[in-house]
Amino acid sequence: MALTTAVDPLGPLLDVWRRGPGLRLVPWESFGPRGPDTADLSRLASGSGALLLVGPRNRAPRTVLPGPVVTDASGRAVAAAWLPMTSARDVARFAAAAARVHDRGGAGTTRTLVVLGERQPRFDRLAERVTAIGAEAGAGAGGADLRTRRCTAYDLTRDDTVALLAAGPALGVYVGHGRPVGWVGYAGMRAHHLAAAAASPGHEPMAALLSLTCRTASRRRTGLSFAEALPLAGVATATLGAVGPTRHTANARWAVRVARDAGSARTVGDLVVAISPHDPHAADHRLVGDPTAPLLDAPAFEALHPRRLEEAS
């Protein structure tokens, strides 16, 4: 579809971005058929709080951005995200979900890190470590509002996990094996499982879902990657995924830093900018959706928290 047609449904969200931390919307078509290059992105990052590149569906995440952040001429890192223009309905669904996340706030709003993982010993050990680090960070001066809960495939079934994420936690992080179409964990979690819940009454979008695994932002043998499908379905305002294979050690470093920094980062873009410089493999990942999504729980998740999450722990 024509990009100019697809951008129209972003209207309400554009107003949010104008009032917020300086997100710059970058239309692919403004730079010709090949889109912006690295020098263009560096120039656009100057004076911007974050970048969102919107472009045609036939472009894959691997080819449109050099990584989840770009640097301006001064060396400042800026979060950079991708959004494929699939249809006006998809874009409007994304914009509506993102606007709901931006509307969260006020006294008493919590921030929960949900630790997700495949049912395998090495991933279970990592999930346990991340949960402990998150709990420690939440108890510190900089993360007093951060709650961390372990919800791995040892703890919850796929259906229960879908229901939990559909209540709108601030942040989810998955460790385990992944594929372009989803996670191996939870008996095979696919975008359509989460999208079905997102279309149900009472659903609340997550602020961000980070898949620290292989290929969830890859287009290999799929028309749309898992990382791209979730924002367009209204499941999460932003996602992070890898465009190719990744090493478990690199994923573990990301997961640990997410747990340490989630309480102090205001947005998912802030979180990614804080983590990326510490990982030589950061360019393996792409950010999809709204990089300015605030890391806050939905009120519905706060109501669910005492019963469901404590049982999962």
Overview of this structure, please?
With 313 residues, the protein is of the alpha/beta class. It has two domains: 3-102, no CATH class; 111-312, Rossmann fold, CATH 3.40.50. It contains 13 helices and 13 strands. The longest helix has 19 residues, at 121-139. It starts with a helix and ends with a helix.
Structural class assignment: alpha/beta
| Total domain modules | 2
The number of distinct β-strands equals 13
Alpha plus pi helix count: 13
In the CATH scheme, the class of the largest domain would be Alpha Beta
Mean pLDDT equals 91
Residue share in helix: 25-40%
- What is the fold-level CATH name, i.e. the topology of the largest domain? Rossmann fold
* Distance N to C terminus: 45 Å
Q: Label the CATH architecture of the largest domain.
A: 3-Layer(aba) Sandwich
Provide the β-strand percentage band: 15-25%
Shape annotation: globular
Q: What sequence of helices (H) and strands (E) makes up the elements?
A: HHEHEHEEHEHEHEEEHEHEHEHHEH
Largest β-sheet summary: 10 strands, mixed
Work out the radius of gyration: 18 Å
Enumerate the spans where pLDDT stays under 50 for 5 or more consecutive residues.
none
